[in-house]
Fold this protein.
Amino acid sequence: MRTIDWNEESNSVVLVDQTLLPQEYRVIECKTLSSLCEAIKSLRIRGAPALGAAGGFGIALAASLSGAKDIEAITRDLKVAAKALKSTRPTAVNLGWGVDRVLKAVSDAFDVQGIRDIALQEARDIAEEDIETNKLIGKHGAKLLKDGDTVLTHCNAGRLACVDWGTALGVVRSAIAAGKNIKVIACETRPLNQGSRITTWELMQDKIPVTLIADSMAGWAMRQGLVNSVLVGADRITQDVVFNKIGTYTHSILAKEHEIPFYVAAPVSTFDFKGWEESVKIEMRNPDELRFSGCEQLAPKDVEVYNPAFDATPMENVTAIITEKGVFYPPFLLDEVLV
Ligand code: MRU
């Protein structure tokens, strides 16, 4: 199934609970806005494009649950829902983008039922377009990979980070579909292990060759000549930097040092055209993510912890940005991406 969808019968948002992977593949239903917000906060649903869809479906859910009798009242309910959804995770721009896109669409409605119908249709369109967009990113990006290449990736920018297909891993899928042999090196991605838990699982489901390494092994793998390119997704692209999962910046420096191309694959909805590194809030996560792994204690319980979820890679470390509109090279003039 898709990573996230709408269930017609139960009027709920259904999603793959990614915190359970790889041990268990379970689809959960979010029937209330608070359960959806909890799912986003705890990374049951995660990855920038999937969060865009979650934002859209979240507004559709709020509209379907609202008992309001007139447009003004339901609009107030949707504004409250929008605030709750946006506050769950501050860094990925797609979440707010999905919320705002549905809010904008419903402003054309004439009555309460019209708002509900338009909200659901717009959310479904976001989900549908995400797949088409990723296929285009894949098509453009596949040209950058050669037969026999090994790609190093970080975190999970695959179908589980999107509605389907994936951005960075979508490029790998498209290159393989075009007949190329491509292997992937997946970095573990401490502390929440999206690489080891989700990327490896997802690629193995599709029988795409994947080798897992600890994050600390990336530099040595490059020095050993095992990596032809680094390919990652993005949570937000501002005028000066690419925000992505913590550890991405380190890979970009390592890639530069070893003269390996560093590619970013992301939809246009991930661009924050007015933003700069300084204007973006990086999500700080619970210190216990480093002190514990499940119930296992990994460090003294009261040790001081620094746990940012994302980092920022300066544009000078980026070889190319792959979007649904094509491949962009430095200098990255964000206006060109919009044309
Ligand atoms: O904290 P997460 O798991 O939501 O972080 C996800 C990432 O950093 C991904 O690389 C990014 O969202 C791109 S997903 C296509």
